[in-house]
Amino acid sequence: MKLLDFIDLTNLSTRTEAERAKLLCFYQYKKSGECQFTMTMISDLMQQCGNNAPNTSRLSERLRKGEDRIFIPVKGEKGKFEFIPAVLQRLEKEYSSMRDDTETIVSYSELIDETKFCGKRKYLDKLITQINNSYSNNCYDACAVLMRRLFEVLLVLSYQNFGIDNEIKDAAGRGYIMLDGIVKKAKDSTVLKLSRIKNEFDTFRMVGNFSAHNITYTAGKKDIDDIKLNYRVMLEELYNKAGLIV
Q: Across the 246 residues of the chain, what is the mean pLDDT of every consecutive 10-residue run?
């Protein structure tokens, strides 16, 4: 979970200073596994959220004593604190959704316009949001491989929509041939009647192939940016050919 989402989830802006400190330490613990804190670290966390730097002496008193007590000293580590076990358990229980949500993919149309291309098929939506998430988090090899997969799926769906998917099945007729074979057939197909964007099909395939199979190659942002306009044109055309846009 990203920090902004956690701030919204916990209504952080409405909390007392001690509560904000407690929740931000919990977020840091969940994010990085950090279980020991100093007042300097807590002050930095609070300022990262747009809060003013706290009076660390006063806040330290509140976090270690009285009703707001959440920390105990770390033995042998002066100035370091850790959660009281019962406090941590309560936080884990209250915010269990941070741990249990294994489905949500945070994405904001960073590469592919979700408002245009999502909502047709659930499995396509998941691929698109994973592509956007990978791109926004600088995971360009993952992004390239997923873009290749989405491209392949849309080609197969296009063949299926025209009722000619037997043309791209293996000799046994049970599975589909490799993507390079599908691309060759699609470019020559008189039924699909693809536009000139078909001339870019091998590029989409190779960018994904390099990331998946080349031992020393790692994709960069430019590798994705160089193909994203043509990739978007391809999506529009294959969504139409697959009957996903009417």
A: 82 90 90 88 91 91 85 88 90 74 80 93 94 96 98 98 96 94 97 97 97 96 97 97 86
* Spatial CA neighbour of 152 closest among 202, 226, 112, 215: 202
3-100: which CATH topology? Arc Repressor Mutant, subunit A (1.10.10)
| CATH number belonging to domain 114-241 | 1.20.120
Does the predicted model carry a pTM greater than 0.85? no
